[in-house]
């Protein structure tokens, strides 16, 4: 049990974050808000309710009394063994095109009292799962990373239609049409179709050993194909480099190669930031991630790009680079970004940007009445960017979108208010990023680059707009909480 004192009030809560089990005693407490030190989930200390994702469950609360200067906590033994509260009050949707944003939307609708029909339709064969684990624990089965079991959705009265791909939407008739020829009317619609890789789509052919990493099946396939083989990863972003590290660890005797046409090993990062500086600062040190991966057998080909794949019978055997090098390739993995999955909306009146992302406002409302959108498929106004639009492809943001969309389906007038929080791990080193560093003009570095424990502040207009860290997890949660509360940190304070 975690005992919290907020001024003269005591609260007793579950001690572990229900997301990944982080010890909340190492978290950040501000007023009645307790933020997880690992991934930024936030809980109300009075009620245990979720205040910020990525956690999907609340934490348990226990009765506290104070007598003669002593604090007494009363709890049932069986409750102490539960990881989180699993009871949910009765929330809305109609066909929700599925992902974590749709899942949170459906749950929120039930929790807020909506009793009508909710349908989630997905072209996948699984219930929504933790996609962040696909590049971190590639040997897991799909069932191991389900965010909710099918039985849970059934108990909540949420219909899940798997392998049901939407091909068009008639907004006038309020009807979704599916690949199998069927259709479904809706009263309110959430589009949460995510994004996809457009890499090497060959009409009428399947390249057997060219993969992306978007489903559990692809993850397992890559791990199986890569063991003891020549692996070529196109792209040296977080996704590409994370796969390099994991595969070099999991797949024995695998020869890894990572290609990047930018000069920086990790150019082209999340949230439109040109380069994730935390890594660039490390590039010239002996203990850099770049060097660590090289020590694991990963070869980097920088300032070049893939121009041709050679092979036969639908199987690639060689990757040809623009600089003239030919690389043997038993497996090719693409990690070069993604495209919003919105092609099925082409020709409709829904507003999209030039990349296909759906435009939404702070209520997650599109330009069409009763149609909402959330997750990777949208571009939305970011408060930390003074309302400028951005697409942020990450789980915590998608969950915040789904929650906000549900409340506005219920006419609650809720505006999106969240601080984007990114996390990953590379070769045992934890990386965290909170805020929006886009357009930063200066940085402040605290800690030791050589010892691989540091915090970097991103400065714009004299104030901190984001923070990144290596092995300093709680500090980034602290910055996220300060930014969430609307407090400003000057460059001088950061220093």
TrEMBL record:
Cellular component, GO, one term: cytoplasm
InterPro entries (UniProt xref): FAD-oxidoreductase/Apoptosis, FAD/NAD-bd_sf, FAD/NAD-binding_dom, FAD/NAD-linked_Rdtase_dimer_sf, Reductase_C, Rieske_2Fe-2S, Rieske_2Fe-2S_sf
Top-level lineage group: Eukaryota
Keywords assigned by UniProt, alphabetized: 2Fe-2S, FAD, Flavoprotein, Iron, Iron-sulfur, Metal-binding, Oxidoreductase
GO molecular function, a single term: oxidoreductase activity, acting on NAD(P)H
Pfam families: Pyr_redox_2, Reductase_C, Rieske
PANTHER family hit by this protein: APOPTOSIS-INDUCING FACTOR 1, RIESKE DOMAIN-CONTAINING PROTEIN
Sequence similarity: Belongs to the FAD-dependent oxidoreductase family.
Protein name, UniProt field: AIFM3 factor
Natural source organism: Tichodroma muraria
């Amino acid at each position: 049990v975690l005992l919290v004192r907020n001024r003269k009030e005591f609260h007793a809560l579950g001690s572990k974050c229900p997301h990944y089990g982080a010890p909340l005693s190492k978290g950040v407490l501000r007023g009645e808000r307790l933020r997880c030190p690992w991934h930024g989930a936030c809980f109300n200390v009075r009620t245990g309710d979720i205040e910020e994702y990525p956690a999907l469950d609340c934490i348990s609360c226990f009765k506290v009394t104070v007598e003669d200067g002593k604090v007494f906590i009363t709890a049932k033994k069986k409750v102490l063994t539960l990881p989180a509260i699993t009871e949910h009050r009765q929330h809305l949707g109609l066909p929700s095109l599925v992902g974590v944003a749709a899942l949170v939307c459906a749950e929120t609708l039930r929790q807020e009292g909506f009793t009508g029909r909710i349908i989630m339709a997905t072209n996948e064969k699984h219930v929504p799962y933790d996609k962040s684990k696909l590049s971190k624990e590639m040997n897991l089965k799909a069932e191991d990373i389900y965010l909710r079991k099918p039985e849970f959705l059934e108990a909540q009265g949420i219909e899940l239609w798997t392998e049901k791909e939407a091909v068009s939407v008639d907004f006038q008739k309020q009807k979704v049409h599916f690949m199998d020829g069927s259709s479904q009317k809706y009263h309110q619609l959430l589009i949460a179709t995510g994004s996809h890789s457009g890499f090497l789509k060959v009409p009428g052919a399947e390249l057997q050993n060219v993969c992306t990493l978007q489903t559990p099946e692809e993850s397992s396939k890559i791990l199986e194909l890569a063991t003891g083989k020549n692996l070529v990863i196109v792209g040296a972003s977080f996704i590409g480099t994370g796969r390099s590290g994991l595969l070099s660890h999991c797949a024995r005797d695998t020869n890894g190669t990572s290609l990047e046409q930018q000069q920086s090993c990790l150019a082209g990062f999340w949230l439109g930031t040109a380069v994730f500086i935390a890594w660039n600062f490390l590039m010239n040190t002996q203990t850099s991630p770049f060097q660590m991966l090289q020590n694991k057998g990963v070869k980097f080909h920088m300032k070049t790009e893939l121009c041709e794949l050679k092979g036969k019978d639908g199987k690639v055997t060689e990757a040809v680079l623009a600089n003239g090098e030919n690389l043997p390739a038993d497996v090719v993995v693409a990690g070069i970004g993604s495209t919003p999955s919105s092609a099925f909306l082409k020709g409709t009146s829904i507003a999209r940007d030039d990349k296909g992302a759906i435009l939404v406002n702070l209520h997650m409302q599109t330009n069409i009445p009763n149609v909402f959108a959330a997750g990777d498929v949208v571009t939305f106004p970011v408060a930390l960017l003074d309302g400028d639009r951005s697409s942020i492809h990450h789980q915590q943001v998608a969950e915040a979108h789904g929650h906000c969309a549900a409340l506005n389906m219920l006419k609650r007038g809720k505006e999106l208010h969240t601080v984007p929080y990114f996390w990953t791990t590379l070769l045992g080193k934890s990386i965290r990023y909170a805020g929006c560093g886009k357009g930063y003009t200066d940085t402040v570095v605290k800690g030791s680059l050589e010892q691989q424990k540091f915090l970097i502040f991103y400065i714009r207009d004299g104030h901190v707009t984001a923070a990144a860290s290596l092995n300093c997890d709680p500090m980034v949660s602290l910055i996220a909480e300060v930014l969430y509360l609307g407090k400003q940190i000057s460059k001088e304070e950061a220093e």
